[in-house]
Amino acid sequence: MKFRINIKGKEYTVEISEKGKETKIKVGDKEFFFEREKREKKILIPSVSFQKRNFSKKEILAPIPGTISEVFTKEGNFIKKGDKVVALSAMKMENEIVSEFEGKVKRVLVKKDQKVKEGDTLILLE
């Protein structure tokens, strides 16, 4: 099972796998192992919400809730990993959102002064 989680504004890819009585949780490049008893069905991790995403899609997501203050790209543009694509105002701070991917902008799903929630898709790439 593969998820993407957001902890304090930083995104992590999480993989959970089970083999026998052992559960492995991989967060980024760190691995954690847990041994389960027969009656246990789940491992509960407090204060972490899992967000299932389609990893075949190239999506740029809002890491925190806020208001779009500027959009730096448009449909049809080619962007590289690390290019700033959106400015997001949150808690009286301006946050520059950069692309994790390289590709052609398929759709810009936000506009200036639009409010977004954490995890909302801002831009889709081809």
* Secondary-structure content class: mainly beta
**CATH homologous superfamily title of the largest domain:** RNA polymerase II/Efflux pump adaptor protein, barrel-sandwich hybrid domain
The CATH architecture of the largest domain is Beta Barrel
Question: Secondary-structure element sequence?
Answer: EEEEEEEEEEEEE
Strand coverage percent: over 45%
Question: What would the CATH topology of the largest domain be?
Answer: OB fold (Dihydrolipoamide Acetyltransferase, E2P)
Shape: elongated
Question: What is the gyration radius calculated from CA atoms?
Answer: 17 Å
Ranges with pLDDT <50 over ≥5 residues?
44-52
N-to-C terminal Cα separation, in Å?
25 Å
User: If you average the pLDDT, what whole number results?
Assistant: 82
Which percent bin holds the helix content?
A: under 10%
Describe the protein.
A five-stranded antiparallel β-sheet has the order 4-3-2-1-5, with no helix packed on it. It is elongated, with a radius of gyration of 17 Å. It has strands spanning 2-7, 10-19, 22-27, 30-35, 50-51, 58-61, 66-71, 78-79, 84-90, 93-98, 103-108, 115-116, 121-125. The protein has two domains: 2-51, no CATH class; 58-125, RNA polymerase II/Efflux pump adaptor protein, barrel-sandwich hybrid domain (OB fold (Dihydrolipoamide Acetyltransferase, E2P), Beta Barrel), CATH 2.40.50. The protein is 0% helix and 54% strand. 12% of the residues are buried. With 126 residues, it is mainly β. The protein has no helices and 13 strands.
